[in-house]
């Protein structure tokens, strides 16, 4: 990423060293549904979340979305028509595969917050927002050592807290597309818009199953997934997590899944050069020229089949936890198996 290590670097640092990926404006019927849900029967709602029992007597109206270098939580809220429940959002990738999503996120209130050195909302600032629900991608967002309000402190002022699926132990290496659905389903329960959540999940599953049927049984090319940066930085190579599930459904495989057990691998140039990478997926968020980063890698590793064939694609939010994994599956499958989509 340009300049400082920004939100994406915070995500990587979180995933590797203690904590641990870009929603569109909701259609009118979704906004109406969310509003109706707030006053509808069905409360209280209770759920277990990372070993903590939480209870809701009504739909939260003052929602704060922690950073975590994610957009899964804010994108899911918007997809469910719940943007007007947010009083402060600090998640942003600056781009998205979903038309209008990045613009919709940019238009949300930020609470005028200044993030701390951990790139999270400081404790006093959080309590000053008077939230009734705080969302965090992982438990990193509630770790007192990061200068943030703990779940216990939030509960003391009447605020519920929620850690997204796969983030309880700050290790996202086991996340799959199912966790994206679980996030939607949990938010649907909390806000009493479960019908909307199930429609989104059903549509995503149908789209992914359709792609998987087209590419099933074909050889799976080796794909490198890497965060875009301005230099020759090989620190943020995806090894494990939801992207591996996405690659598999798209008819590919992660070229560096054996590089370690953590979500990301920091590899030497020699190790990267030795792998016959067939295709490249660049996660381009705040970087202004992710395609340029792909070209740089191809120049540095001309022996890759991916370089010889100029085979790459740039993605942002759809490759990470969130409501649009189906878009990543389709984009990657089209890159890897274009003949399966000819005439479609």
Alpha-beta content class: alpha/beta
Q: H/E element string?
A: HHEEEHEHHEHEHHEEHEEHEHHEH
Helix content: 25-40%
Poorly predicted runs are 1-40
Q: What is the makeup of the main sheet?
A: 4 strands, parallel
Principal-axes geometry comes out as: globular
Gyration radius, in Å: 20 Å
Strand order of the main beta sheet, please?
Answer: 4-3-5-6
The amount of beta strand, in percent, is 5-15%
* Number of helices, where a helix is a run of at least 4 consecutive DSSP H or I residues: 13
- If you average the pLDDT, what whole number results? 88
Distance between the termini: 35 Å
Number of strands: 12
What does this structure look like?
Residues 1-40 have low confidence and may be disordered. With 344 residues, the protein is of the alpha/beta class. 55% of the residues are buried. A 4-stranded parallel sheet has the order 4-3-5-6. The protein has a 4-stranded parallel sheet with strand order 9-7-11-12, with helices on both faces. α3 packs across α7 (177-190), α7 runs antiparallel to α8 (194-215) and α8 runs parallel beside α13. The chain contains 13 helices and 12 strands. It has helices at residues 6-17, 28-39, 72-79, 101-106, 123-128, 151-156, 177-190, 194-215, 242-249, 269-273, 290-300, 305-309, 325-336, and strands at residues 45-49, 52-56, 63-65, 86-89, 133-136, 160-163, 222-227, 237-238, 253-254, 264-265, 279-283, 312-315.
């Amino acid at each position: 990423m340009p300049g400082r290590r920004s939100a994406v670097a915070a995500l990587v640092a979180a995933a590797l060293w203690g904590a641990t990926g870009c929603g569109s404006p909701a259609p009118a019927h979704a906004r109406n549904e969310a509003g109706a849900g707030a006053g509808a029967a069905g409360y209280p709602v209770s759920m277990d979340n990372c070993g903590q029992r939480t209870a809701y007597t009504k739909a939260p109206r003052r929602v704060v979305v922690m950073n975590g270098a994610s957009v899964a939580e804010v994108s899911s809220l918007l997809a469910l028509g719940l943007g007007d429940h947010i009083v402060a959002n600090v998640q942003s990738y600056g781009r998205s595969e979903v038309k209008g999503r990045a613009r919709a996120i940019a238009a949300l209130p930020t609470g005028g917050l200044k993030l701390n050195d951990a790139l999270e909302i400081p404790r006093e600032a959080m309590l000053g927002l008077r939230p009734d629900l705080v969302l965090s991608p992982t438990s990193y967002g509630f770790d007192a050592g990061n200068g943030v309000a703990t779940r216990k402190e939030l509960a003391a002022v009447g605020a519920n807290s929620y850690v997204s699926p796969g983030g309880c132990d700050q290790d996202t290496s086991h996340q799959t597309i199912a966790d994206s659905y679980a996030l939607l389903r949990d938010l649907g329960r909390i806000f009493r818009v479960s019908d909307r959540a199930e429609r989104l999940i059903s549509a995503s599953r149908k789209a992914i199953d359709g792609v998987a049927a087209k590419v099933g049984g074909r050889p799976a090319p080796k794909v490198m997934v890497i965060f875009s940066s301005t230099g020759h930085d090989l620190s943020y190579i995806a090894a494990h997590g939801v992207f591996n599930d996405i690659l598999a459904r798209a008819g590919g495989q992660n070229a560096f899944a054996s590089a370690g057990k953590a979500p990301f691998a920091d590899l030497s140039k020699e190790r990267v050069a030795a792998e016959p990478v067939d295709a490249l997926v660049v996660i381009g968020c705040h970087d202004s020229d992710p395609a340029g980063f792909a070209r740089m890698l191809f120049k540095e590793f001309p022996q890759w089949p991916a370089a010889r064939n100029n085979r790459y694609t740039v993605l942002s939010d759809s490759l990470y936890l969130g409501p649009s994994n189906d878009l990543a599956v389709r984009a990657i499958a089209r890159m890897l198996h274009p003949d399966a989509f000819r005439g479609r």
